[in-house]
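Predict the assembly for these two chains.
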Amino acid sequence: MLLWLTFLPLVGVLAILLAPDRAGTQRGIALLTSLVVAVLGLVLWGCFEGGDAAMQLTTSIDWFEIALPAGHVVPVHFAFGVDGISILLVVLTAVLMPFVVLSTAGHIDKRFKEFFLWLLVMETGMLGVFLSTDLVQFYFFWELSLVPLYFILGIWGGSRRLYATIKFFLYTVAGSLVMLIAIISLLYQTGTSDISELISRAGGLDPSQQAWIFGSFALAFAIKVPMLPFHTWLADAHTEAPTSGSVILAGVLLKMGTYGLLRFGIQLFPEMALSYSGLFLCLGAAGIVYGAFLAMAQSDLKRLVACSSVSHLGFVVLGMFALTEAGLRGSVLQMVNHGISTGLLFLLVGMIYERRHTRMLDRFGGVARVMPVFAFFFVFTVLSSAGLPGLNGFVGEYMILSGTFLASPLWAAVAVTGVIFGAVYLLVATRRVLFGPLVHEENKALTDLGMREIGILVPLCVLALWIGISPNTFVGKTAGTLDQLSERIHQIRADDARTAEVSLLEETR
Amino acid sequence: MSDLKTLFDSIFTASASLATAPILALGVGLLLLLLCDIVTPLRPARGLAFVGTLVVAAILQARVLFANSAPGLVLDGTFLADPTTALFGLSFLVGSLLAWLYASGYYDEERVLATEHDVLFLAAPAGMILMVGAADLLVFFVGLELLSLPLYALAAFRRSRADSVEAGLKYFLLGAFSSAMFLFGSALLYTAAGSLSLSAIAEHGLASRTALAGIALVTSGVFFKASIFPFHMWVPDVYQGSPTPVTALMATGTKAAIFGFLVVQLMPLLPPSAAPMIAVLAIVTMFLGNFGALVQSNVKRMLAYSGVAHAGTLLLVVPGFLAGADPAAASRAALFYLVAYLFTGTGAFGLLALLEADGERFTSLDSLKGLAKRRPAIAAAMTLFLLSLGGIPATGGFLGKWFVFSVLVEAGWTGTAILGVLFSVVALGYYLRVIVAMYMEEALEGEAAPTTNRTGATAATAVCVVGVLATGLLPALLLGPLGS
C-alpha cells in the first residue's frame, strides 16, 4: 500500500506525458491522481495504529548491496514504512495536494504539461522522504524532491526567479552533500542502512563520531527548515515562487527539514541531541523572535508570510529540542498546523495578487468592504496562525511552550514574546489590507472570491478548526512512537544524572 | 621451427584465445572494413561491417565475463582478463558504438574519408581493451599508442577548420611528450627490476631511487592522459577543437581506459606514502576543473573543464585505496563511476554534436536559451545528463560519486571526502546554468531554432538515457557480475 501511495503520482506523470498540452486536461489528470493519493492517504490514516511505536505497514524490496571490508555487505532496500513521527506528515502531503492542484487555475498560465509533471514528481519525492525506512533510499528521495521545485520556481516564478532558484538549490545541496558523507560514514560503521536497525546501533558508536555525524545531519536539516543563520534563501524562494509552489514549500517541503531533525537528529542520536539541545533551543527561540521582527519590517505581504514561517518553524525546533513529551508532541502537531495555516495564508495572498497584481501592503486598505468573503477567510487564517485558542495554532504552541518550560524556562520565556510579536505583525497586516478607508481607486472594483476558491479554502479551514477543538484525534496517532522516544530520552537523562551524582560523591570523598 | 610452434602453443592456450578474442575480432573487422572500401559493390555494407564487428567483439567479451573460470593472466603473464577487465571492455565497445552513432551524419563536408573515420574508430576500442588488461608496461604502451594514434587523426578530422587541426596537433605533440615520459619511466623500472612485468616490479619493490623515479614517470605519463593537474592544460583546447563525437569518445572512452589501467593494474604498485600527494593532486584537479568550468560561456568547453573535474573526483579512489580501503571496493567504485560517466558524457557531448549541425553557434550557452520549447526531447535528455554529471539521485552519476566517496570514508579520509562533495556544489552551479538557459529563459531575438534530426543520434541518445537511469536505479545489474 505504501508503495502505491508513493508511486501513484508517477502513474499520473505517464498519463500527463501522453495527454495533449491543454490546461483543462492536464489539470484534470493531476487532480484525479492527487485525489486518489489523498484517498489512499486517508485509508492509511484509518489503518494506522497510534498506540504502536514500531514502523507499520512495512514493505521492502532488495535494491543493491554495498560491499564492506572482510566480506560483509550492507544490503540496501527499497523499504517503506510509517510510524508516529511520519504519519501526520504523510497524510498532510496527500491531502494538501488536490488543493494545490485546484489553486493553479488562477496563476499557472503557460506550459501546463511540464508544471503538472513536476508537481506530481514532487509529490512522489515528498512522500518517499517521509515513508523511507532505509537511509540510502531516504537520501535518494530527499534529493529527488529538490529538482521539481527548482523547475517550478525557475519557470513559473516571479521576476527575480532565477536568482532565487539558484540560491535555493545551492544552499540545500551544500547541506545535503555533507549529509551524504555522514550517511556513508554511518553505513560503514554500523553495517546497516535500515533505519530501525540504525537507531539501535548508532548509540554504540564512538562519541566523537556520533558528534560529527549528528552535526552533518543537523546542518543539512537546519538549512532545509530553515533555522536562523540559514534562513535567507527562504524569503527569496517564497517571494518568487508561484502560489502553488509557495504552498508546497511551506506546507510540506520545509517539514522535510524538521522531520529529518526529529528522525535523524533526535531519534538516531538522543545522547547528542541532549548534549547540544542548548544550542538548538537558543537557535529556535532566536528564530522565533528574529523571524517575527523580520516579518514586522516587510512591506510585501508574501514576504511577510515567508518571514513568519521562519518564526513558526522556530517553535517546531524549540519544542523538539526541549526533548520532553509535551514538546515532542507539540512540535509534530505544529508541523501540521504550520502546513495548514501558512498554506492557507499563501493561497489567500495568491488570490488577492491574481486580482490586484501587487502584494504591497500600502496598495491595499478597506478591502473587507468589497471582498467580505475574502476578509472572513483572511481573518480566520490569521487568527489560526497567531494561535487563537480554539484554532489549531494555539494547541501546538501551547504544548511546545509548556514542554519547553520544563526543560528551560529561559528559552520558553523568550519564545513567549514571539507569540506576542506574532500577533502584532499578523494583525497589523490584516488591518492594513482589510480595514480602514478604501483609498485606492483600483481596490473598489475587486471581485470577491468565486466558488472554486471558496471550495479550496473551506476544507482547510475546517481542518484547522478540527485540530483546534479535538487535537487528540491527531496527537493520538503520534503517541506510541513519541512516548517511546521520550521514554528513551528520560532514561538517558536519568543515567546522566546518576553518573554526575556518583562522580560528585567521589569528588567530595 | 617446431620449437617455435611448441613455444607458441604453450603461450597461446585456450584461455589466452578466450581472453584476446575481442581484440582479434576488432582487428579482423578493421581489415574487413578496409576491404569493403576497396570493393565497390560492398561499400554500402560498411556501416553493417562496423556495427557487426563491435557486436561480435562484445559477444566475445561477454564470454570472458560469464566464463565459468576467468582466464586470468595469460600470454606469459602479460595480459589479464577477469570480470572487471571484461566489464571495462564491454563499456569501451558500447562507448565506441555510441560515439560512432553520434558521428554518423556529423561531417557533411568530409564525406570522402568516411571509411578512414570508421577504421580509426574501430582501432580505438582495441587499444583500450589492451590497456586495461595490460599486466606488462610494454603491452600497455602498445595499447596506449593503438588508442592514441587514431585519436590524434580523429581530433584533426575536420581538416577545413583551423581549431580542429590545432586540436589534433596539440594532442599529438603533448601526447607524444607523455608517451616519452612513460617510456623513460618504464626503462628506469626495467633497469631496477630487470623486468617490465608489473608483478615482477611489485615483487622487486620500489626501494631503489631508480625504481621510484621510474614509477613516478610512469604515473605522470598516465596522469597526463587522464588529465590530472599539472598535466591537464591540453584538455579544454583539444576537447573544444575536436569534432564533438570524437570529443565524446576521448572524454569517456579514453578516460575509462586510462583509469581502468590505473586502478586495476598500476594502483597496487604505488607506495602508500604517495596517498597524500595524490589526494592533493586530485583536489587541485577538481578545483581547477570546476572553477574553470564556472566561467565558460561555451557549453562544449564547459563540459571539457567538467571532464577535468570528474577525473579529479575519480582519482580520489587511489588515495582511498592506498590508505587502506578494500581493493575490490576501490576498483568497483572506479568501474561504476566510469560506466555511468560513459553514458552521461557521451550523451551530453553527443547532443551538442547533434545541435551543432545547425551551426557552430549551438554550442554557446546563449544559443541554448529557450531550447525546451523548441526541442523538448533534446532539452529533457540534456537535463538528465547534466543532472547525472552533477550527481543528483536516480542517475548513474549520483551512485558513481557515492561509491567513490564511500572508498574515501572507508579509508578514514572523511575530511577529504567532504572537501570533494563541496566541489560538487560548485559543479552544480554551472550545470544548472545550462538547464536554466534551456528551460527558464526565452530564446534570443532572431535566433533560428535548431532543426536537425538524425536517426543515429536519436538511437544513441535513447541508449544513453536508459543507461543513465539504469545505472542510477538498478546498480545491481552492473555490480552483479562482479560478485561480492
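The beta strands of chain A are 56-67, 73-82. Chain A touches chain B at residues 62-69, 71, 73, 114, 139-141, 143-144, 146-147, 150-151, 154-155, 161-162, 165-166, 169-170, 173-174, 177-178, 180-181, 184-185, 187-188, 212 (CB under 8 Å).
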